[in-house]
Amino acid sequence: MLIAQISDPHLTTGLLAAEPAAGLHRALGRVLALRPRPDCVVITGDLVDHGRPDEYAALRELIGKFPLPVYLTTGNHDDRESLLDTFGGTPWLGGGFSAYYHVDHEAATIVVLDSLVPGSDAGRLGEEQLGWLDGVLAGRPEVPAILCLHHPPVAVGIPAADSIRLADGPALAEVIGRHRHVVRVAAGHLHRTVTTGYAGTVLTVAPSTWKQSTLTMATDEMIGWVAEPTAFLLHRIDPDGCVTHTVQVSHSAGQTCGF
Fold it and tell me: Would the pTM of this model clear 0.90, i.e. be above it?
């Protein structure tokens, strides 16, 4: 199974709308140009920039004609109520009315987690959601599972970003540790590509389809924005595990497709 992980498009409306929309559109076009095509796309948070209803309407218009399944994840720039108002009950949220859900494909279980904490840039899952996750993972232990959320659950060496990571990362690790069929934890938030071991599996952080952040590892420097290439991650899941590729978009020699 092939899963394309896109992250942090930050769609908006008005004068500043063109660049984020073009970035997401190019990434989706690059997904369609892959052979074989991925089975689905997961967008790991910061779907829009301000959480406004008009921004979610713009997102729905942009992905409405996309021919592959797309699953949406909340980020700290999102608004849960507006997201549910626009996408609740649709396949983009797994057919339900919750911002955390799972989709059972034959070859893999895709679990989307909701780490949004209103009014905070940091993330948290909470005991109720972690208990739900434990039950979902116990339901299909024979099938590989991929967990998708916005906030990375561990520190990555970028102090400003580490201060707003997932607050209950250790609790999430405890749950994952009971389920050895979790082959990947897929996050966003950092606007950079990062890979690390986590809870006996692998954590991959996808770059943004809009703009990338500086690699600011010193405590006395602020994170800025750099014109690095946009990209997405492609996860290939089979019974033996998961392999992840980085697919360039803005600086790619590969063709893109319209939709």
Answer: yes
- State the residue range of the domain holding 136: 2-248
Cα separation values, 84 from 53, 163, 250, Å? 10, 28, 31
> What is the length of the chain?
259
Token code pair at residue 65: 């004609």
| Domain assignment present for 258 | no
Q: Is residue 255 part of a domain?
A: no
Cα–Cα dist 235/242, whole Å? 6
pLDDT digits (tens, 9 = 90+) for 14-35: 999 999 999 999 999 999 999 9
Residue 252 confidence (pLDDT) above 70: yes
For residue 70, give the H/E element and its range.
strand 70-73
Q: How many CA atoms lie within 13 A of 11 on its CB side?
A: 24
Let me know if residue 257 belongs to a domain.
no
What's the CATH code of the domain at 221?
A: 3.60.21.10
Q: How many domains does the chain have?
A: 1
